[in-house]
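Still learning folds. Look over my entry:

…
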Amino acid sequence: MGKTSAKKASVKSVMKDPKDKLSFEFLPEFASFILNNHLEDYSSEQLKTSRDEDVPLLKFFSQMPEEELLQLAEKSAKEFLTALAQNKARDYIVKSADDYIKNRISFLEREQVVAEDITIVSFIRRKTIRKFLLLYTKDFAHFIKVMEEVDRYIAENETATFNAYLQIQQEKLSATNAKLAQREQELLEAQELADMGSFLWDLEGGKNSTFTPGLMKIFEMTKTNNLESFMENVHEDDRESLRTAIEKSFHNDGIYECEYRFVKNNKIKKIWSRGKVSFRDGKPVNMKGSIMDVTKKDALLQQLKESEELHNQAQAITHIGNWSWDIESNKIEWSDEMYRIYGLEPQSEQITFERFLSLVHPDDREKRLNEIQESLQTLQAADYLMRITNPDGNIKILRGKGQVVVNKGKPVKLIGTCQDITKEHNLNLELQDKENYLKQLINNAPDAVIVIDEKSLITLWNPKTEEIFGWKAEEVTGKHLTETIIPSQYREAHKEGMKRLAETGVARILNKTLELTALNKEGKEFYISITISQSLQQGKRVFIAFLRDISIEKQTQDELKFKTNQLEELNTSLEYKNNELERMNKELESFNYIASHDLQEPLRKIQLYTNRIFEKGKNILPKAEMEYLDKINLSSARMKMLIEDLLTFSQTTSSTSNFEITDLNLLLEEVKNTLSAIIEDKKVIIESTPLPTIKVIPFQLQQVLLNLISNAIKYSKDGIPPHIKISFDIVKGEKIKTHGLFPYKNYVELKIEDNGIGFEENQSEKIFGLFQRLHSKDKYSGTGIGLAICKKMIQNHNGFIVAKSSLGVGSAFYVYLPNDTMVSNDRQLAN
């Protein structure tokens, strides 16, 4: 690659600041090269790679024109490359994370981003950069330097983005409702990941067997044991099944899998294990595999069954779907995550067993069906692995766990979880072809791995350790551990421990997980989790340390403590509110008593005495005084009606009436009988279709019909007999333009329409308010409470009432009740 003097000058201007690991030496010039020569090609290549890798975020841009999408990609690439060219990577990362957290990305909502997007985008960015780096330089050493800085940037960017992602998830969790708050402890348990360990079991003598610290911790072992010694701690009821699983793997396909209980120190753990046997000349020589402590997972599964909402929250965080199959009803319930895994829109259709089987890959369909049938016979559901075919033809590999729910010895339900492991499976296949087992274990370990000899000299420093501590392997190899990561307050204790180990062979901290602080390259202390084991390499004792940066977890614990305190304060506030509600209920009871006794009794006496005076004074009192008495009587009657309506409304608000199965046709007949005199007097025509039988509070629904029919008669046109039509239908919530109805739920619709005087459409909500009257009380009697009572009674049924009208044409009142209140009807769902 030819470099001009101008380019050399630009390199000097962005020379690496040794205090900032994101101040780069080689990357800025390379970024300038792409900006000046290949920006459009770079943007197109990055977009193409994103489609090849099936980035989940791309589905939100499927409707965007190609040209506009390319412009968006080029704009994003230009901002990224400009930041690198100006050696402002840290500023770019901070701004990107801040924009993400504060939802300032104009073309994207932050909730649309999932964890998989972050890792795949980093992979795509690295892959695209590597391709254009070949155009920039042929010098392999220079190539490596640039890629090292790229990897450092991507690691820092992923850390910032994941921190932002976790912060957003925390914000979402804080917005959950009171029910979720009560279940917070179960949700936290659902978020915990199971402990795991791996092993290489030498079947030709055991000398070359190796076990990871995670396995030793789960089994609470300080040294390796032979099989017979290990079996002593396996639960006696599970020993035979474990032996059978092992023997089966030796003689069949080499696949070992078993779930069993392990007893140590009076504690029972449930262990899931899986492995694969390697053969030489038909003889098993070793087994590689992993184990998982699923004790907490089983307990968590029981808790998750109690709350579907808790299921969904846990899945949103872990990205694992759950399912249940009610055997008797053949009804399958899927979480939203299950729909996504199968390439379907959440809750877009009701899944049946046949529909589920149609999505299973044809080559795996019979096998999965046999597994399910075996589970129903044995009442034990084994873990499963299968392929599915999404509606778009995309094939995925799923791993799942199940459980049979038994009632009186009979299987009634299957429940379980499912995870899409397609990318993990394909990646493992690629890694098996390219890497050996030890290199995978060390270099691809999720934790930092450090190996030291008996003199505390560092002999191995894996990439994760470089990322956490900042030193490259070549910078620390051969150095004493106290010169690097051990803080001053721990150095003396480390030296004493190594001395004691050399003299006595006893190490107090081996195979134990400790939490303490360590130093990074910049001299900053941060919290780590560390587990140390020992091994022999070429006849010499070495110590292997597995470390994790838990500074974020420590911070999260502090935040959790703060949230717990907030929750306690909220509980105290809720208790106060409950006491207030109880006090208000007592005041309401007192009001009902006063309204029904203390207020009405004076009115009765006023009416009684004014009537006596009126009767005795007909021929004595002047006409003006008689009119005054008449107005007193009218006002008293109106006050009595108002008190009675207020009492009815308050009783409706605090109703404790029971729901009963009620024939609405009979209720309507009772209303007609009650209004028979005025119906005959005004020649009212009431026309109705057959009404359903539903579960309601009979008195309240009768009162609703009575009020609505009475109003239709009261507000009829002069000289025109009232004509009232009552009909019923079943409709979906999505077809009703009323706030509060669920779109996919069915509702019973009762329609009461008349040919009366009507009212203006803009009054359709106002009329349901207390004391709302649209007409003069001199012409139309009433208190303005009747429709408010109707609305409250319908709300007691979890329903809604709306009105539609035109002045001079007539009115129509629509009552909507949940369809699950209906007992029987012959009506099909309205289209």
Notes: The chain has 29 helices and 23 strands. The first strand starts at residue 196 and ends at 202.
